[in-house]
Amino acid sequence: MNTEVTINRLGYQGDGIADGPVFAPRILPGEVVSGVLDGTQLHDIRIVTPSDDRVAPVCRHYKACGGCQVQHASDGFVAHWKQGLVQKALGSHGLEPDMRPIVTSPANSRRRATLAVRRTKKGAMAGFHARASDVITQIPECQLLRPSILAGIPLAEELAIQGSSRKAALAVTLTCARAGLDVSVTGGKALDGPLQQTLAQVAQAYGVARLSWQGEVIAMSAPPAQVFGVAQVVPPSGAFLQATQEGESALLAAVCEIAGEASHIADLFAGCGTFSLPLAGLGEVLAVEGDAGMVEALDQGWRKSTGLKHVTAEARDLFRRPLLPDELARFGAVVLDPPRAGAAAQVAELAKAQVARIAYVSCNPITFARDAKALVDAGYALDWVQVVDQFRWSAHTELVASFTAPAAKK
Ligand SMILES: C[S@@+](CC[C@H](N)C(=O)[O-])C[C@H]1O[C@@H](n2cnc3c(N)ncnc32)[C@H](O)[C@@H]1O
Fold first, then answer.
1. d(Cα 82, Cα 80) in Å, to the nearest integer?
2. Ligand 1, CB cutoff 6 Å, lining residues
3. What does pTM read for this prediction?
């Protein structure tokens, strides 16, 4: 029996939600839909009344692929929705900051992607998982990825043919570097001498800059350096990199605006130096990061560059050992860019320390709002928030925010 409902909001994953609740994937607020209700899920959905915000998806793979969630909505709608998610998270803590205009990365700009790759009877197939499924959708005309990542699909398939069984899927992370693709693979067969030789031949045949297999470097024709300001850094295989160059530039511009006037800056959760190294053109930097390999890469990048102020790179678990008030006292600005869990322990110390300026970059509006509330309760002003959408057409939301200590405002 068919049920008809009116969608009144979107959930955090981009699904339409009607009273009940009834969940209807890829349906927009205001749309009237009918379908077969299975528990709380509506299936075999037919749109009775479409929204004015509904658009034709730009990608021909959208229907089958789970890589994008909101390609059926206009850019304006998605921008408004993502800003609204951040405002709602902050509003639940009583915070209503100024929102700067969203910056959305263009199509075909993702410079790093992890493909699922599986051997088949005839060869192999690489792509993204279908929605809530382990079925792989092939994506030769994906509108998210840079052309050079799409050009790596045959390579990813060859790696699966040579190095995986038909039972397990490989996860092949392709990262664009100036020297070519930086490729990191997990889920493959255990390495032995012959496999290592075969994989090295594949890397050479496809002109790969670096190939790593389960964390071990198999082949490197050229160091796959990333450029941060004037510095070049060779990250450890599979290391974090901001998803698009455009998103990184927007975040960096905001971080420099907030922190750039300080003579001493602490960059916490620093990665390989995305912010630390450009900031070192402006002031002395302490870069703290939990992953020792990334700290080493950052340090080497600084040592090999010229014209930068001093950078001290420290490996430290900031969840367990946050910088304490006496360590924070010498910094005019702190940059925070934690993982999704946020930075509760570090924020508790910042609350006691009163650093003049804080730039907080976040990939999770919920933990950001919790941490923002703790800072505001300690006397900081939340000056503004800007959503930086590096994951266009997805339900993922990122942002950068400016905090000022009361003394710095005067
Ligand atoms: C969102 S990334 C940001 C990296 C860097 N700021 C950038 O823009 O490239 C978060 C970083 O936090 C690091 N991290 C995760 N948990 C940590 C912890 N407990 N202590 C210190 N760093 C941690 C990760 O290794 C990762 O490099």
1. 6
2. 240, 242, 269-271, 274-275, 289-291, 294, 317-319, 337-339, 363
3. 0.95
